[in-house]
Amino acid sequence: MTSAFDTATNAAEAIRAKQISAAELVELTFQRIDRLNPQLNAIIWQNRDAALARAKDADRALAGGRAWGPLHGVPITIKESFAYRGSANAWGLPQLKDAISPRTAVAVERLEAAGAIVVGKTNVPVMLADWQTNNPIHGASNNPWDVARTPGGSTGGGAAAVAAGLGCLTIGSDLAGSIRIPAHFCGVYGHKPSLNLVSMAGFQPGPWDGSPGYPMDLAVVGPLARSARDLALALAVLGGPEAGDATAWTWTMPAPRHTRLEDFRIGCVVEDQKAPVTADVAAVYERTVSELERAGSTVTRGFPAGLDVPAQLETFSFLLTAMVNAQNVVDPHIRWLQASQHRLAVRALWQSYFESHDVLLLPTTITAAFPHDHSEPIGKRTIDTPEGKRPYLQQVPYWIIFASLAGIPATVAPVGLTRDGLPVGIQILAPMWEDVTSIEFAALLAERIGGFTPPPAFTA
Question: Does 194 qualify as catalytic in the annotation?
Answer without folding.
Answer: no
